[in-house]
Amino acid sequence: MTINTDLKILGNANKQVWGSSHPKNIFIRSIKRIGKNKTLGAFRVMQGEGMGFSWVTLTTALPVCAQLTALHSGKEIHGQIVKSRKNADVPLLNSLMDMYAKSGEIGYCKKVFDRMHNRDLTSWNTMLAGYSINGQINEAWALFDEMIRSSIKPDGITFVALLSGCSHSGLTSQGQRLFNAMEDYGEQPSLEHYACLVDILGRSGKLEEALNVAENIPMRPSGSIWGSLLNSCRLHGNVPLAEIVAKRLFEIEPNNPGNYVMLSNIYANAGMWEDVKRVREMMAMTGIKKDVGCSWIQIKHKIHTFVAGGSTNFRRSAEYIKIWNELSNAIKDLGYIPNTSVVLHDVNDDMKATWVCEHSERLAAVAALINTGAGMPIRITKNLRVCGDCHSWMKAVSKVTKRLIVLRDTNRFHHFQNGTCSCKDYW
DNA sequence: ATAGGGTTAG
């Protein structure tokens, strides 16, 4: 059955009912489970057929835009809200804020927040988490203070947002103090908060302290506790601890490919190629496959996806080669040289340079440069974390092209502008 | 109906 016939059937049913159980809303929700791209497509078809929408429809469609970084579509929905001249309710504005925050447009997010007549705890938490993932930790703290001054009682989500923000901006002691102060605000730390604390300590290099916390958590530890610690071992090159941590982690999450890759990276960084091989064999034996690294951009209504090393037709196209060569020359003058140490494989340097230059976010960046007007910001979303060399490359490219590049990875943002990044290189 | 924790080699 096509989307169109579904919509026709739905369009004739219960025209008057507009609650969350309205068929239109159930339709959008069920499509959402099938695929994000399909949801936005279905929503557009609904609009094309003059079917209208309720606030619930939009509140279901906006999180899809948020997840996809489909800012273009999200803005269109915002336009629909404005055009309808009705007062949007709190959940709708909350999801609108979140869509802006997850598209890296924290300014718009704040604007919506400021103009809300009523706010609930979700509004505050959304704003706070938005600051946090966009690396604006000072603004997050200021908002938290304002929350407390306004006698709004924070909940567990509030603390997750702030603690993870501290962790990613290197506010180690401040994060620790907040964790210890949680009970003063009437919140008992849960596993999620312990995971943040372990991350705060480990990321800043306090590996022993982090291990101590992880081992004494008064509840059954989750994969994210040991996963965070393993990542900290990777950041600080601690192989012996990594081996202890990995053992615990694999007991909890034997099927998470990321964990194996991380351990393999730790060995590769230390030049322990035999152990790298051993981890790979472990993966091959259990049939675990790494997720493919991919990046995407939205141009008009279409989402364009790029896979590392793939998209051969695109990489061979004249327009790609032209832009790539121009960029390469310009950033070389800035002093950019591919840092091949991020390619953790036992191959020669030329091969490494080739691989690192084919990471999906670079392909997406070139495509965005080709398909968007001069001076327009470039928004890229990646399903994995960015590698160190792509981070340097983006900085250089933002400078030579005079473009703002907003790169969102699994859960954080990098805003590159004029050769620097909002994360201040702590990540 | 809306907000939340670590991470992915070739």
From TrEMBL:
Hydrolase recorded as keyword: yes
GO molecular function, one term: RNA binding
PPR repeat segments: 120-154, 155-189
Domain DYW: 335-427
Keyword Transmembrane in annotation: no
InterPro entries noted in UniProt: DYW_dom, E_motif, PPR_At4g14850-like_plant, PPR_rpt, TPR-like_helical_dom_sf
Keywords recorded for this protein, A-Z: Endonuclease, Hydrolase, Nuclease, Repeat
BP terms from Gene Ontology: RNA modification
Family label: Belongs to the PPR family. PCMP-H subfamily.
The protein, known as: Structure-specific endonuclease subunit SLX1
Source organism of the structure: Vigna unguiculata (Cowpea)
